[in-house]
Amino acid sequence: MSPAVLAAALLATAAAPDVSVETLRTIADRFDQAQIAQDRATMEAMTAPDLVFVGSNGVRQSRADFIAGWMDPSTHYEPITITDRYFLPLGPDAGVVGGDVVVRGTSGGAPFAVRIRFSDTFRRFGGEWRAVHIQATRVPEPPTQ
After folding, report:
1. CA separation (Å) from 135 to 8, 38, 57, 66, 107?
2. Could you list the pLDDT tens digit for every one of the 145 residues in the chain?
């Protein structure tokens, strides 16, 4: 590659605007809803094959582990509300979305509530946005309803 072509490519990359907060919000909302709805197809489509998931127990897990964790047929989730949400664009093809959420539902007929502070890193591959890294940290839990 000639120096002129390399310089033009670098300038084009440098000039590309960051992904918008609105785009990150749309991606994150779709991803969050897929989890709560236990929508395996959408979760598979929205996660990179080499996804790194650090669960609330601190253990690094795979994409398969992450998806399987949401698919227990005896577990049902209530709608969520994310608080302290943030959107961090990292260039034209990447961004981080995070916040604080209480995940509530029933598992095996028993109610549960788990408070999680999370960050999801998304990257665009071939026009499709996928989660490439997820960090979940358990924080003091609220009482179950």
Report:
1. 36, 19, 10, 11, 23
2. 666 665 555 555 556 899 999 999 999 999 999 999 999 999 999 999 999 999 988 999 999 999 999 999 999 999 999 999 999 999 999 999 999 999 999 999 999 999 999 999 999 999 999 999 999 999 986 555 5
Predicted structure pTM score: 0.84
What CATH number corresponds to the domain at position 128? Answer: 3.10.450.50
CA–CA gap between residue 62 and residue 85 (Å, rounded):
25
In a domain, 109, yes or no: yes
